[in-house]
Amino acid sequence: MERILGKLERTEVTVDPAESDPRNIYKLMVGAIVPRPIAFVSTLSAAGVRNLAPFSFFTAVSANPPVICFSPMIRGSDASKKDTLRNIEETGEFVVNVVSEEFAKAMNACSGEYPPEVDEFDVSKLTPIPSEAVKPPRVAEAHVQMECRLCKVVHVSAKPLGGSLVLGEVLRFHVDDAIVHNFSIDPDKLNAIGRMGGPTYVRTTNRFDMQRPK
Fold first, then answer.
1. C-alpha distances in Å from residue 121, one per residue of 31, 118, 200
2. CB 101 within 8 A of CB 143
3. Domain of 177?
């Protein structure tokens, strides 16, 4: 339909989610909400099986206390909970590892739909190292790791492609000494990547500065 917005004239598509396939809504969301940082989440099941999976619905919530959140979605293939969510609900603990480009392929190997008994550390050949305040291991290759205790899970939808919001308080930050000075992280040395739509990722090397108005 044609719409005139002030001096801007353009043709646009208007979508009513209630009348659309959820898979198409998902494509719109991951194409529009970009770039998205990646929470590479390590957990342990109640039986002690390690799990490692990436989630790109991820952000910070609070700095005092430090709280972060991510959203594991209900699988579209079989409408089941992801192992990460089930593990966190069982144990109340997880670690968020920040993904840098040098181990992007190993991270991607963990994104498959594996049975609960599969250890993605073994699949990816990434290195588990002990945490201090929680039981799930950290990813040694990650320059930043955040040990978290579960604050709350908000279940938004149990439908296929529905999601839950997992909020966790950060009990420990582990930062590679080579990338940080006076609590400021060097983005070039972190070399983080983010998600776009579909199979596309983005580098964070093309940046610009703007000062906030006083």
1. 29, 9, 23
2. no
3. 21-202
Those residues whose C-beta lies under 8 Å from the C-beta of residue 193, and which sit 6 or more positions away, are: 38, 99, 100, 101, 104, 201, 202, 203, 204
Residue environment code for 165-189, b if the CB has 16+ CB neighbours within 10 A, otherwise e: ebbbbbbeebbbeebbeeeebeeee
CATH label of the domain that carries residue 101: 2.30.110.10
Ordered per-residue pLDDT tens for the chain, 214 residues: 455 556 667 788 899 999 999 999 999 999 999 999 999 999 999 999 999 999 999 999 999 999 999 999 999 888 889 999 999 999 999 999 999 999 999 999 999 999 999 999 999 999 999 999 999 999 999 999 999 999 999 999 999 999 999 999 999 999 999 999 999 999 999 999 999 999 999 999 999 999 999 9
Q: Specify if 13 maps to a domain.
A: no
> How many domains in the chain?
1
Q: What is the DSSP string of 59-99?
A: EEEEETTEEEEE-PBPPTTT-PPPHHHHHHHHHSEEEEEE-
Q: Establish if 188 belongs to a structural domain.
A: yes
128 is a domain residue: yes
